[in-house]
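Allow me, if you will, to draw on your knowledge of protein folds for a short while. The matter concerns a single protein, recorded as an amino acid sequence and a row of C-alpha cells. Kindly check, if you would, that the fold set down in the C-alpha cells agrees with what the sequence suggests. You will find the record immediately after this paragraph.
***
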Amino acid sequence: MSSNMASQEGSTTSTPIETHSSVEPVTNNDQSENNTECYPPNDLLSDSKSYYNNAKNYWSNVSPTVDGMLGGFGSISFIDIRGSEQFLKHLYKQKPAPGRSRALDCGAGIGRISKNLLLPLFDHVDLVEQDEHFCQTARTDLADYGTKLGTVFNEGLQDFIPEQGRYDIIWAQWVLGHLTDEDTIQFFHRCTNALARGGMMVIKENFTTSNVVDVDRTDSSVTRPLLQMKQLLKQANMRVVKEQRQTSFPKELYPVYMLALRPTIKK
C-alpha cells in the first residue's frame, strides 16, 4: 500500500506522508489535527479484522498513481529513491554483503520502488500488495522488465508467508503502520526465515518525534516512535546493522528513517 508519509504505494503501506507540528502531531495524508489523534491506539487495534478492512477500503479508493501512493506528495519520490539508493550502496559494503539475485518489495502498491530502485539492481523482484487494482497496475507498468519481474502477490502482509531462504533483500517501506504490533513481530519472524544467506531486511518508515503513537483513523494506520519499533524488532530477534535518516524531505513531514536488519542469530 502506500501509506503514512510518502508511503510506499499500495494498500498495505502506511499512508502517505504525514505531517506534524511541535504541539500535536498530525499523521497520514497531511490531514488536519482534528482528524488525527495522539494516544495509545488500543481501541483502534482491539478489533484487528476491522482495522485491516478499514485500511483496505481506504486504499481501494486511492488513485493508482505515484501521487496517489504518496498522498499528494509525489514530488518527493525522486528524493526518496535517491536516499534509498545511497543506503543500499552502504549495505553492500557490509561483510558479508547481500546477494543481488532476488528482492521482495513489501506493500508495493503500483511498484514505484520496484521500478525505480529494486529492478535495476536485482535479477528478480517479487512484489506483495493487498490491493488488486494496484497489483494489476504494477504488472502492466513493469511488464517491460520481462523475467526480472517475478510474482506479484495479491495479499496483505499480515497473512503473507514468503518462501524460506529466497530473498537477498526484503524492502518494506511506509507499510508497517498498517500492521498491529503483534502482526508486525510475526511478519519480521517470517521475513527472517525468508532471507537468503547474508541477506538483509530494510524498513523505511515515518516515526514520531515523541514517545507517543500517532493514530490515523482515516486510513487505519499508526505512526510509531522509533524506540517502539526497535522494541518490536528485539522481540522478533532482529538486530539493526545500519540506521540512517532520510534527508531533504519537507520539514513539515515526520522524520523518516531507514533501518537495515539482520537476524540476531546469524544464519
User: Anything to note?
Assistant: Confidence is low (pLDDT under 50) at residues 5-39. The first strand starts at residue 36 and ends at 38. Strands lie at 36-38, 102-106, 124-129, 149-154, 167-173, 195-206, 214-216, 221-223, 238-245, 256-263. Residues 106 and 172 are 5 Å apart (CA to CA).
